[in-house]
Amino acid sequence: MTETKPPTPSHAFRPDPGVADPPPREARRPGCRTDHPRLVLTATILASSLAFIDGSVVTVGLPAIGRSLHAGAGDLQWVVNAYLLPLSALLMLGGALGDRFGRSRMLVLGTALFAAASLACALVPSLPGLLLGRMAQGVGAALLMPNSLAILGDVFRGEGRGRAVGIWAAAGAAAGAVGPVIGGWLIDTVGWRAIFLINLPLALAAILLAWRYVQDLHDREAPPLDGVGALLATLALGALTWALTVGSGPHGWTGPATAAGVAGVVLAAGFVGVEARRGDRAMAPPSLFGSSTFVGLTLLTFLLYGALGGLMVLLPYLLIQTAGYSGTAAGAALLPFPLVLALASPLMGRLAARIGARPPLALGSMVTAAGFLLALRIGDGACYWTHVLPAVLVIALGMAGAVAPLTTAVLGSVDPRHTGSASGLNSAVARTGGLIATALLGAVLAARGEALVAAFRLAAVAGAAAAAGAGAAAFLLIRPARPERG
Q: Taking the mean position of all CA atoms in its chain, how far away is CA 74?
């Protein structure tokens, strides 16, 4: 008599193609599982969109914040850097916290902190209070960003992962498209404080979805947290950022700026030494750099996002200060950039899953460099349609070729135990690139008239060189790999 297997109950979990099977109980590693992958994707999109929207909206609001709080060029740099500094320094720790205590839990905690800090930014009466609120936003983003990506790495696989990451990047770009326009309108009609209130409904929806539909899988053997490494990274980035901000300003590289720069280098060297001793227990495990591919991805991320971070601060500032744009118009001027990313990123994510990440990363970086060279045509009285728009479109096309393939490549390049640390490290490198670029903009933000235009063009040349360097890193260091199949 032949034994027959009982039918699978109709309510049993059947993952879609491209959705990872839950691991056996005895083989579980830190990660997440769900019976509702689409709702999980929605939760990660809503949470990470907080960081995308906040970054784009605040750059449009810098002139209004400066007038309202009597802030100079150096102060405006810190409105951006007070957010980027803790974000850059703590992203790796945020990923490690997710690996140890649960990625969904850290996503919820970070989103809640970001929302509370946004409310504080909208209510504070002075510049120091705004800077403290921005720092708290950075801490919240450091928790939610790496864990949103790590959750996608857990829940999806193969081409499904590339498609999910592409949708994630596209949705973030779409949020970035709406944010500056709505933010500019709020600045012109209500005031700059209203731009921080945009974050509250998004945060609430993300928290509810993640709390309800994402299940954490815990690793009881996870190593202790790397508190010393986190402290050294924070102090090193703080010292270097302060040195670059002051050194690029009117006072130049005087004694305090030089001393802070030296201290930052020493602290960074100490961080590298601590991480090397801790090995795989470090928040930035040295084993991640065991292949030229991960090194190439890291270098590309730093250069490409550094160039982009400088552009996103300078272009709306230039348009408002020299061309007389309103906040709404300056936000709308950037609209084609995230729209192109929103349309192209899902396609590029699927393409990278099939042919590998190196071709789109190399080509996308070079196209981005060409867009920065087109930005040299932007000046006082430049026509938007013939001078600004072509540069924005070409940069957007290049970035669309790189964003989703880069994220997919990072998630697929490491052991599943380290996806939180790897995504945290990659996000940290991206934000550090933007942090350093912003810290170097003191002379540009302090300039006026033709001097501002000349400084902007010099920054555009530097952005083109950085993007070209990113393309070279992709071509020379990233090894061709067989596409992952679901």
A: 23
